[in-house]
Amino acid sequence: MEIQELLNRYAAGERDFRKVNLIGAKLLRADLRAVDLAGASLAGANLSRARLEDADLTGAFLYGCTLTYAHLGRGQLREADLTKANLAGAFLVRADLTGVKLSGAVLRGVNLRSADLGGVNLCGANLSGVNLRSADLSGANLSWANLSRARLSGAALGRARLTGADLSDAHLVEVDLAGMDLDGINFARANLRRVNLRDADLTAANLSEADLRGADLENATLHGTNLTGALLAGCNLNGATLMRANLSGANLVRSTLDGANLNLAALEGADLRRADLQNAYLWKADLAGADLSGARLRGASFRGATLDGANLKDAVLVGATLPDGAVAEV
Description:
The longest helix has 9 residues, at about 5-10. This protein folds into two domains: about 1-110, Pectate Lyase C-like (3 Solenoid), CATH 2.160.20.80; about 170-330, Pectate Lyase C-like (3 Solenoid). By secondary structure, the chain is largely without helices or strands. The chain has one helix spanning about 5-10.
């Protein structure tokens, strides 16, 4: 179909252009709101800054298409092929992208807030700085994706694959990651306040300087995890495995670590004021210079631990096993 014919018929009120052939069409800044282009062929088309709000592009072929700064809010793009398309700066708020193909697509600066990306393959995608707040990424493949500085607060990530993903400096406030495999993920400096990480596997993950205040990490596995300088105040770490974890300089004020395994953990200079470490295991842990003032340590095991320069003022040590194997009575 010729471009002018399409525009004239649209201006006359027609909206049904399903399966139309518009390969290579130049539709820059075109106003095609609520148009039906389901199954249309738009490979190589230029739709830069086009108005496509509420448009139906279900199953459309958009290979190599230019959609820079296009307005696609509430658009239907289910099963569309956007392979190698340029979506830089595009507005896709509340768009339905389930089953869409995005291999090799440029997604720099795209706004995907509240978009439906369930099951989408974003393996290796560059989503740095992308707005994904409240987006549905359930079952999505985000393996090796660059999500540094991405805004994911409120997003649904259930069953998503995140192997090798970079989430450094990302915002994940109140996200539910319970029970997920996050082995080796880079969360350095990420905002993870009030996140649910209960039963999650964070083995060897990088959480250095991450903000985890108020997070739920009960029974989480953090074996060998880097938590240097992390903010963990008020965290629930009951039953967590932190064996060989590095918590040097971490803030654990008022955190609960009842029954946690901190054997061989590095806690030099950590702030554990008023923390609950009852029945915790700290065999050969390094607590040099740590602040344990007011901490509850009843039943904890410090056998072989280093406590040089540690502050134990007002700490409750009754029943705790001291570094020399003696049991504290007061």
